[in-house]
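Exercise 7.
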Amino acid sequence: MTQSRKTMVVKIGSSTLVGPDGELRREFIANLARQASELDAIGWSLVVVSSGAIACGAPVLGFARRPADMPSLQACASVGQCVLSAVYDEEFRARDLLTSLVLLTRHDTARRTSYLHARDTLTRLVELGVVPIVNENDTVTVDEIRFGDNDTLAALVSCLVSADLCVTLSDIDGLYTANPMEDPTARFIPRVDKIDEAIVASAGDSSTSVGTGGMITKIRASRILMTAGIASVICSGAEADALVRLALGEAVGTLFAPSATRSDIAPRKLWIALGDSSHGSVTVDAGAAEALVKRGSSLLPVGITAVEGDFTAGDTLDVHGPDGFTIARGLAQAGSDELRLAAGRHQDEIASNRLLSALAGKPAIHRDELIVFA
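Solution. The predicted structure, written as tokens, is:
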């Protein structure tokens, strides 16, 4: 491989891979393999984050619709993953491309050492010219260790492989000001430079019965990617040659463009943003929010106005601004009980309180363990 080579991550939703009849759209995967070959020829490596295991396995096991109980879902995932992997292998081999299967859970990324191992494996596969097919390991996951949606997983994989572009192929052609299936006045948004409350408010729920993510999960994932300096696109899976056209610089779907002046985010901070689910949250006042966003400060207890959840020191927390909008994520320096007592107190008050004296001189979240979202 050469230094000029680029990497694209493509996330494919269940509704794009599987038809309403429950049958896998093999022709879609064949077309994807053709595009992967064309991308390879113009200097792009491809990593596929693929949903669809449960949707593929359900009809094989005789389920008329997606089951609701966890053992049945995991059984469907186990059978469906074999079906899905076989088709990927056959269609990509027909284009002289080798695929691999990588199954992940939050358990594999919540610990930093496992996160780094996953990064090294994926990076090496790409270096060797392999097209990794990545999915959540639904066969063994339970709610506590689930990513919950492959939009988050695609953002994680994009950061792991230092992707140049992350593309989500969906059942909608991009982001609108409202749900276009419900509001005829909804306008298409071709480019997003900042994800604010208005952009989040425009997101609707999932429109299909075979998927788990909606537009809101895609926007949250794109926000993390923008923070990491990675461009992302949401477009329709039915769009002809979308991946090749995007690689050639054509505008397709909605582009989430990171700031050109933003510096690289340390790998540890990306791990904090993506490696583990949130165990709780803190809400901060306007002064603390400004200090975090504009000055890169640590979060002090005095700036906290509310504490939610049950967590311990070292757990991942979301940080909400005064309006409730998530502005950052970081690792707690103290447990939820301590922070509830310390919230709104100055350091001299904390130092003089026998219950809180251990927190004296310590931030609630240190800036080295805090990532502020774009």
